[in-house]
Specification:
- GO terms for molecular function: serine-type peptidase activity.
- Belongs to the peptidase S49 family.
- One of its GO terms (biological process) is signal peptide processing.
- Helix 3 packs across helix 12.
- The protein has 23 helices and 26 strands.
- It is globular and about 90 Å long.
- The longest helix has 32 residues.
- With 588 residues, the chain is an alpha/beta fold.
- The protein folds into 2 domains: 167 residues, 2-enoyl-CoA Hydratase, Chain A, domain 1 (Alpha-Beta Complex), CATH 3.90.226; 247 residues, Alpha-Beta Complex (2-enoyl-CoA Hydratase, Chain A, domain 1), CATH 3.90.226.10.
């Protein structure tokens, strides 16, 4: 017993010490933030783009406290686009060097960055790329370069696309947890991970279709840049030629096999410098402060980020309805804000929270233009909240639609019995005990829940009818929980235009009739002081468990494993009526 107590005390002391280090580090960061930067862009500079850390939609997704622990240098998509756009007109920046290996981003984000690089090339400046091993996403982005160089001992992971879905049914059975599921729509596969151990035929069909649409976009972009025929390209991919450097060179997947020092000399030669000359390489982190173009105009365009799953309540991660509505009202009441971009990257979530948010967005639209921009995912509840938009932009590779509703109710009756716990009850009416973790659900509750699902589905359909100006039959034929690619969504009238973040911003400015404006983000970027307070107090004030313990767990598990941890931990949150897509899809 003494040993156990000492272990617990040691763990508590360790967490307190680590917390103190993080807090002190944040304090020092804030002190140094007031020291003016002396960074200057020299003539004949190269912008070096290395995107081996996460690319964030919402700048507030970056957790400075965790970044201190694992040297995470995540950057927002907007910062990347701003830097590339500004470099296009900066005479001191002569070209861009892409150094990519493991790109942690969605294909829609990559498409936006790729388009910005294509625009950069219109300035007649060059883009070179170099890789020491290269995953498929990195190759897709690097293929935009004028010339591609590869380490002679490296390989390129160019394989086509596959999608992996995680299933939890056997986990539930092993520990005696059952899930009562009611759904509307044969494609509403968000519940499949809890009730199956493989893909249904409907889900397999829609995933196959999505992958084919994604690959059409990706492969055609690469083919256009590399000037390879579609037949040859697919042959090279099927044969895995890219895994052998010599074959990658032979079949024109890269332009040259050289070592990194040789690549550096090529850059110097391109700049007209000798091999022993020094040249200035600038990172995105260094350049982004210079690239921030702040207008003197009082006019503002707000970017409202809707990132993550939708929940009720308050929280600083994901989309929590009360917190999100507070931001909507703040934007609505600011007369300097002339238009709003709702940037959505969400698989949906709570039906009630989604409905609350949509109502407030309609109220916002009454006062100022509301333009929606989809990122990688805008499905189910994430699609639902876009219905107030004046115009919806999507990328070809956006996962969207999933118009459908489901209900999921867990019970642990078997688990309780396995560990020797039984329960009994008395009641006054037939459905007084309509649900219990240890008794499950009553038949009456199942029937009324099913009716509620149908009613919520019809409400979803009606909102899409109103927002997209369609008939019931048109929307229903596109619904039933089916997910569409952005390209198919455009063809079916679910979105208005294929375009990126800044296409939406340009349209919003025209709609509002403003020429000069500043972009302001919501949630507002938190200062280091805010992060210190939030890290210590958020467990007490919010529903999202983002306090110090949660941050330390996230640090220990890593970003991807933490997502899986959250998925399992939030099973209880996902009961009731949900507008949720199967977002545990990893497209490789």
């Amino acid at each position: 017993m003494k040993k156990f107590i000492f272990q617990v005390l040691a763990t508590i002391i360790g967490i307190l010490l680590l917390s103190s280090i993080v807090v002190l580090s944040l304090i020092f960061i804030n002190i140094f933030a007031f020291i003016p930067s002396k960074f200057v862009v020299k003539d004949k500079s190269i912008l070096e783009i290395n995107l081996n850390n996460s690319i964030l939609e919402d700048p507030n997704e970056r957790d400075i406290s965790i970044s201190l622990l694992n040297n995470d240098k995540s950057i927002s998509l907007k910062d990347i686009l701003d830097v590339i756009n500004y470099a296009q007109t900066d005479d001191k920046i002569k070209g861009i060097s892409l150094k990519l290996s493991n790109l942690n981003a969605g294909y829609s984000q990559i498409s936006e960055i790729r388009q910005a690089l294509l625009n950069f090339k219109k300035s007649k400046k060059f883009i070179y790329s170099y890789s020491n091993d290269c995953d498929q996403k990195s190759y897709y982005l690097s293929s935009v370069a004028d010339s591609m160089f590869l380490n002679p001992n490296a390989n390129i992971e160019l394989t086509g696309l596959s999608a992996e879905v995680l299933f939890y049914k056997n986990l539930g059975q092993k520990y005696g947890i059952n899930f009562e599921v009611i759904r509307h729509g044969k494609y509403k596969s968000a519940v499949e991970p809890y009730i199956r151990d493989n893909l249904s035929e409907e889900n397999r069909y829609q995933l196959k279709n999505i992958l084919q649409n994604f690959w059409y976009k990706i492969s055609n972009d690469i083919i256009a840049s590399r000037k390879i025929s579609i037949e040859n390209f697919n042959k090279y991919v099927d044969s895995l030629y890219s895994f052998i450097p010599e074959l990658a060179f032979k079949y024109k997947l890269v332009d040259k096999l050289i070592y990194e020092s040789q690549y550096e000399n090529l850059l110097k030669k391109k700049l007209g410098l000798a091999n022993d000359d020094l040249f200035n390489k600038i990172s995105i982190d260094q350049y982004k402060e210079i690239a921030q173009n702040i207008s003197r105009s009082d006019n503002k365009i707000a970017i409202l980020y809707a990132t993550g799953q939708i929940y009720t309540g308050k929280g600083n991660t994901d989309i929590y309805s009360k917190t999100f509505i507070d931001q909507i009202n703040e934007i609505k009441n600011d007369d300097d804000i002339k238009a709003v971009i709702l940037r959505i990257n969400s698989p949906g979530g709570s039906a009630n929270a989604s409905a609350e948010i949509l109502y407030e967005l309609y109220e916002l639209k009454e006062k100022k233009p509301l333009i929606v921009s989809f990122s990688d995912i805008a499905a189910s509840g994430g699609y639902y909240i876009s219905m107030a938009a004046d115009k919806i932009y999507a990328q070809e590779n956006t996962l969207t639609g999933s118009i459908g509703v489901l209900g999921m109710i867990p019970d642990v009756k078997k688990l309780a019995n396995n560990v020797g716990i039984n329960s009994d009850y008395v009641s006054t009416n037939s459905n007084s005990m309509y649900y219990s973790l240890t008794q499950g659900t009553s038949q009456g509750f199942k029937e009324i829940m099913s009716k509620g699902i149908d009613i919520t589905y019809k409400k979803f359909i009606n909102e899409v009818m109103k927002g997209r100006k369609m008939t019931f039959n048109q929307v229903d034929s596109l619904g039933k929980g089916r997910i569409w690619s952005g390209k198919e969504a455009l063809e079916n009238g679910l979105v208005d235009q294929i375009g990126g973040f800044y296409d939406a911003i340009d349209y919003a400015a025209k709609k509002a009739g403003v020429i000069t404006y500043n972009l302001v983000s919501y949630p507002k970027e938190r200062s280091g002081w805010d992060l210190i307070v939030n890290m210590i107090t958020s467990n007490n004030n919010n529903d999202d468990n983002t306090g110090i313990v949660g941050k330390l767990i996230k640090y220990e598990l890593g970003r991807e494993n933490y997502k899986l941890f959250q998925r399992i931990k939030n099973i209880e949150r996902n009961q009731g009526v949900m507008c949720l897509m199967p977002f545990d899809i990893e497209i490789k």
